[in-house]
Amino acid sequence: MIENLDLGMVNWARAQFALTAMYHWLFVPLTLGITWIIAFYHSIYVKTGSEEWKRLTKFWMKLFGVNFAIGVATGIIMEFEFGTNWSNYSWMVGDIFGAPLAIEGIFAFFIEATFFAVMFFGWNRVSKRFHLFSTWMVAVGSNLSAVWILVANAWMQYPVGQAFNPDTARFEMQNFAEVAFSPYAVNKFVHATSSSMLMAALFIISISSYYLLRKRHIMMAKRSIAVAAIIGLIASVFTIFNGDESAYEIAQVQPMKLAAFEGLYEGETNAGLVAFGLINRDKKVFDTQDPFVGFHLKIPAVLSLMANRSFGSFVPGMKDLVYGNSEQGILGAAQKMERGQNAIDSLNAYKQSQKDGDAEAAANHLTAFNENKEFLGYGYLTKPEEAVPPVALSFNAFHIMVALGTLFPIIFIGYLYFSMKGKLEEKKWLLGFGTITYFLGMIASQAGWVLAEVGRQPWAIQDLLPVTVARTNLTSGTVQTTFYMFLILFTLLLIAEISIMVKQINIGPEEN
Amino acid sequence: MSTSPHAAPGLILRVFHFYRDGFRQMTVGRTLWKIIALKLFVMFAVLKFFFFPNFLATEFTTDSQRADHVINNLTRSVQRNVTTPVKGEKL
Fold it and tell me: Model ipTM?
């Protein structure tokens, strides 16, 4: 199959999925994060009874509503794509993803149909306490519904709690708890939700800074900033810590991704973390070119600490993972390819024996398959170097995310400091910078997903199924057409969102 | 303790009025609902219907055939000189 692949189709299907996912993710973090901050605003209103806090809560609720309405159902397109472009993959993971995605659908439907409506329509129509409870439930519910899609994504990166059934060609769930509570899934959920809260805080800071610069809605803007900056600071520190935990998890289960996003070709003990550097885009894993162009700066031993929780530990580089390193006991992709090909041969022989009615031979081939099945995906690679993801893109995505992620707590501290001093309105430079921070947050958030998904290539399911086998046998022209259709549709929706959002921001909060 | 037989219909009516009045009082929400409706129409009635058929559901009638097709794709890489049929070709 590999030799007959239309690689153009695979790349167009990947591009289409990336476009859809990135577009979907323009809306999701704000929805996840701002619901918590609105719940805090609403709580302050209920506690104080102040009309100003009510006005403020209603204003941010309205902007949340715009974001939610434009973003809703954009994720469904990804499910369409699974069935059409990625049918082999879709069939193989159906048993694993069925339960989490069904739970997500139920959560989303019930919470959005009940508490969402009460949150928007409930002013003066239900008791204050029930109204507040509904606002908190929207925050809880929308974040809980995100759990399941993140569990599904985490499973692709770290496929635990499953067994491959060679009769049905499906990965079958063996242990739901192992899938739902895998450390990868827990880290992914915590990182996604805390960074979303940080994003929402940046959104509020951006718009409130704009009001302060324009000298409009000053009291509302200052109050909004005070709460958002505290939540943003806590969320950003938390995001940094659980980001570090995610990196540790990646080092354990996807060492190639870690090596790629650090541009680490040769394994090292006391490995340093790149603080600054331009990656050499032309370097290949087998050549002797320098991995960096010009000057680069590494913080000694920090990558070892991040990867193994030990300063002096060995971190494998891409060469170790591709060609193997017997000294460190690392099996190379070349050796894994051999085992993977054995798995495929055994699977083929097993099916043939079944057709021939030879039960004993079938049992023997199945045993042989089971011995090598953990390397199944490597059997589809044509050369060991194919196990390396796009290094430059992974490296740049990681370092952009980290650089911006380090900047955000400093911004929140600046806003808190000048707010407490009562000098925020005078600091035009900070307010001016503050207006663009949401866009910086968006870049960091998108870079995080680029790293997560590009960094795990060539796998659709880590080590078990490469994207080239996961796809449907379509022509690239078919996928190309729908790619451009989505591009047009998404652009139109984005224009609609931005124009409605800008209009609402210019109108500002309702006057009493 | 007795409950009124009219309690349930009363509750349903109150919920109905709650939603009805909520929708009636919407301002920017009306535009948003129009966008949502248009978007869902384009997604389900146009994109899904014409451009995104479920490949395995439309090409095969039973799960057993689907499983065989996927297994063939998984094992075909070791069967040299066998081409993979593209959509539209008879399997």
Answer: 0.82
Q: Which residues of B touch A (CB under 8 A)?
A: 18-19, 21-22, 25, 28-29, 31-33, 35-36, 39-40, 42-43, 47-48, 51-57, 63, 66-67, 70-71, 73-79, 83-87
Residue B83, pLDDT score: 36
A65·B52 Cβ contact <8 A: no
- Say if residue B44 is in the same domain as residue B1: yes
Name A315's Cβ contacts closer than 8 Å, sequence gap at least 6: A251, A255, A258, A259, A264, A267, A268, A269, A271, A303, A304, A307, A308
Q: Does A382 touch chain B (CB under 8 A)?
A: no
Nearest CA in chain B to A67: B32
Same domain, yes or no: B22 and B65: no
Where along chain A do its domains lie?
A: 2-254+408-507, 255-388
Check whether residue B47 and residue B3 sit in a common domain: yes
Residue A89 vs residues A92, A246, A472, A473, B67: alpha-carbon distances, Å:
5, 25, 9, 12, 12
How many structural domains compose chain B? Answer: 2
Q: Are both B43 and B58 inside the same structural domain?
A: no
Give Rg (Cα) of chain B: 26
The reply to whether B38 and B6 lie within a common domain is yes
- Residue numbers of the domain that contains B45: 1-52
* A288-297, A386-395, A473-482, B24-33: which is most confident: A386-395
* Confidence class for position A2, pLDDT limits 50, 70, 90: very low
